[in-house]
Structures are given as structure tokens and as C-alpha cells.
Amino acid sequence: MGRPVFLGKAYINWCEKCNVPLIGDSCAVHGKEGVSRLNITPPGDLRFAFEKDLEFIKSVFAEHFGVDVGEVLDGKIVLLNKLPSEDDAYEIIVDGYVFGYVKFDPIKLSWKAGLKVEGAIALWKRFGKKMKKWVIVDKGAVEPIKNGANLLAVGVLEADPSIRVNDDVILVSEDGEVFATGIAKKDYSALIRGERGTGVKPKRQKSVNYREGRKATMEDVLRANAIALEEKVMKSREFMRRVASKYSDLPVAVAFSGGKDSLAVLGLALEEFGSDFTVFFNNTGIEFPETVEYVGKLRKELEPKGIKFVVADAGDAFWRALYVFSPPGRDYRWCCKVTKLGPITLAIKENYPKGVLMFVGQRKYESIKRFKQPRVWRNEWVPNEIGASPIFHWRAIEVWLYIFSRKLPYNPLYERGFDRIGCFLCPSASLAEFERLKREKPELWEKWFKALEYWRRRFGLPEEWITYGFWRWKRLSKGEKAIARKLGVDIPEERSWEPVKVKIEEASEGYELEFNTVLNKKRLLQVAPILGEVSVEGDVVRAGEVEFFTRTRKAKAPDEREAVSAYYLVKRAYECVGCGVCVGKCPEEALSIDEKSKKIVVDWNRCTHCRECMEVCPLLKIKNPEEGSQL
Length: 631
Hints:
The protein is 35% helix and 20% strand. The chain contains 21 helices and 28 strands. The two termini are 31 Å apart. The C terminus is likely disordered.
């Protein structure tokens, strides 16, 4: 399991009388009486479990422990807390204690279940030896185990026959007290034989806080949190009001993705600004169909109220770019620039050329990078945009409380078990999420699988490159290298793909370039002004200080810097996918996208050769995986 990261609160308060979680220090119904604090694993961005989540949890626990945990969870408020892990993992919280967890195994590609002592008590109380994965321990071994010792096999009196090595098990004393949980280091037969060595390695748990609370509903949660929630809402609205006042010369807009966080910001904007703002939706072309449909319904509801909707549509830009860049990766996020930054930049430039104040659903609990970002920022990639996050300090549970309290219509994918709503093939998604995609949306997975299979064959990689999600990195992380070793598969440490290649050599006069493709005069002339004043003599195109010998593979430059710029120009000319990032960045409005070729074209009369467009082109500048991932 990964190292805990503290991004804010790592606890949740609980009203034992209402049997519901609290986002504040007291209950709106009972005050501070009966309020307890439960420490949870950082970062602590917990959320409510939907019905589909509960069905899933029940199935995983039934497979491992052989019983229906619905006996404990049904009719209660259940929270899920995402854990640091190799892949997806969640703490399960009910009745004010951590019941257990579910964790996805990236080697076996399956989920496993585990119990905390409280969860083990709850199940043993209801099922006893009818459940699986139990071990009855000699009374003489109980105290040593509680004090940190391992359970030796000779200390086992009885055990469930289904126990295998590395199974999560519960330890029970002779008199029926569940006193620990642990990991089996021997299988059933070895435990019963008393085979020499450690039989079970207990998990260390500082305290046990088992209790059984009454059944509760979301109405109970809202009632108990009414005061604390409204305080949080007021603070966020005050923030929006203050920022809007500071940038009063800019029109107000909300970046809406179709996810819960942007929905909360949209709700806050409706409360604070009425109808005096614009909603920006970026259709990346790789959204879930349900998201596009959901946004369309919301648009039909809001536009009659005077709220303007702007759709920044990337069309098929991703699929065109895929065959230029190769698959995106967590460390190779060209996809965000092509499908988000380009269309958004053009949409803002067209609708608000003098700039816009964009409220976004960015929260510090999402990642270390988000945690370190300011709450108000100027977007270096989108000119004239000020970004601000009113829910920066909110946790997911608070976002959902707000949505439920206002009865805001949310994306139906959440009720189908999707924790994260975004591009369906995002490389930041976990293996568990892709397994869910295969199960819930097989047609989308099939489309992406075919594209990955094309590249797998082109790179000459094993099938595991797709199966185990190695494609999600351009350069494998330490964790991925470890998984490859465990699987015994040979995955290159880094994949490289450059359609346009060049050999640059120093010559007697300057530098000579030789490309792997013949230089096309017509196409070069469409972009040549970027490097400088252009002149043409026969097949020779001179741009600034660089000479391109069209109908050949050759070019000349006075120095190494200009030689690299010449390579970049040819690369942009040939590999451009028409994302539009450079179009929005150009201060002279000298760039446009050709409707037919979907590539950039330079206006010779406007271009001042400043080369700013070279600084933002995704082909040339993809370094920070987070760049462009947020409006």
C-alpha cells in the first residue's frame, strides 16, 4: 500500500445518536453530545457509497469470507475512503468505525477484501464459523499476539479449510473473542499440522472502537450537517463574490465537465450570480456518451433561464493525434493539450477575446499537485483566463452533501459505480477502472483496445502491455517495472515514437540537416514565416536564416539553435493535428487551422516571427503531465 499523504483533514466526526458522519465538530440536531472522531487513512477524501458500490462490496466480501456483509451495511450510511495503493483501494466506514477494505490486485486483476477488527467482530457475531477465513487461537497465544507477536502455527487450534497463503484472516480466541486480523503465511493444512514457523502475521491496530448504530438515511445526514454545510457554502460564495469583484472587468464563467465537482461549482454560481454567467463545456471527443447526454439535458434546462452555454468541441482531434503521438501516458499528456487546451483557448478567444474569470471544480484533496496550486491563478496556457476554485478546501463528502441538499441532477454514471468521470480512456485511470469500463461499457473499451492493439503491434510489444496497462506510461514508473518483473514479461523501459526524424551535423559553414522525409514546398510555405522573413528561389525556401531544399531531404542552418528550430518547423508542418493551442496563443492572430487539412497555416502579413507558437505546441513541449489537465 502506498505512503499516506496528508492534504488536509485525515479524520471524520460521527454523531453516534444519528449514526451519521459530520463535516463539522457538532451535530445540528444533538450538538456535541455523542460526537466521536474517527481517524482515517490520508488523504481522507471520502464519499458516500451508492447502491452499485454496496452491491460490489457485498460480492467481493461474499467471495472471500462467504457471507453477506449486507447484514451489517444495509440501511446504514456507508462511506468509502480512497487509499494510497498500487491501484484502487477503499476503506469502508459504517457505524462510525472502519469496517474493512477492498483492494484491486494489479497482478491478479481482481479485487480482494480485508477486515479491520471491528468488521471481523461484526461478522463473527452474526455468522460465527459459517463464515470463511477464521482461525481459533490457543488462549496462551492471545496476549503475546496483542502485544505484537506473530501467530505460530502450533498456536492454532482450529481453522477454516478454505485458508490459503496470503489470505486475509480473522483471529478468534477460544472463548469466541475476535481480537485481531492478519495475513495467512501458511495454508489450512500447514496451520492444522502445526508446521514450524509463522502461521499468521497479525495486522497492528492501535484501538478497537466497535459499536452498532441505528439505521439512517441521507435525510438524517443532511439534517445533522445542515449548519456546517451552509457555513461552508457561505464561505465559498463569499470567495466567488470577492474574486469576481477583484476581476470585475472580466465576465464570469464556470468550467463544467459533467462531474460532481464542477456541478457543485455550477450550483454555487447559480446561487451567487443568478443567471449572469457562462457555462463552458469541453467535449473532448472521448467523453462517456452518458456525460454528453447529461450535459445536453442540463443545457436545455439552464439556457431558457438566460445562462449562456459555450461548447469547446475537440471533434475527432484525439483520434487524429493518436496516430501522430502514439498513446498518451501519465507522463505524456499530449491528450489534454489536443482535446482540452486547444478547443478551450479558441472558444474563449472567440467568445471573450478580452478575457474571462473561470470558476473551476478543483480541490486540494485530489492530488499533491492540486494541493500545491494556488486557489486563484493565471492560466499560462490559455491567454486572458483567470482561474479560481471556490471548493478548493472541500472534500468529496462535502461536495456530495451540497449536491444532495440542493437536489442537483448529477451524472448517472456515478450510480453505475464510476468514481471518476472524465475521458473514458484517460491514462490516469486505474486498472480497476479499466476493468469496470470493460464490464459496464464494452463498446468503448473495444474501440480503445483496437487502437492500443495497433500500437502494440507497431512497437512489437507483448499482449501484457495492454492487459496490465503498461501503455499508461511512456517511461515506466518504478511500480510498473516491479509489476513487469513479477509477471515475467519484457516491457521496454521507455517507448519512443517520432514520425519526423532528423540528423543534424556540423559542417564547414553552419549545420546541415537531413530528414527522413522529402520536404514539401507547398506545406513548408504555409508555416515558414514562423522562423523569419521568407524568400523563394526555385526549390529553395529561405525562412529567416534557414534554407530548406524542397523536393529533397536537406536543410541548412547557421548554428545549432536554428538547426533545431528548423527541425521543429518541419515537425509542426507535417505532424500538426490542428489542436488550436498555438492559434489561441498567437498575439498577432496570424495562425489559423485549415478546414480541409486540419493543420496550421500562417498569415504572412500578420506573423512577426516571435516564435511564441513554438513554445506551446504539444508536439514540441510535453513535459509536465499535469499541464493542460485543468481549465
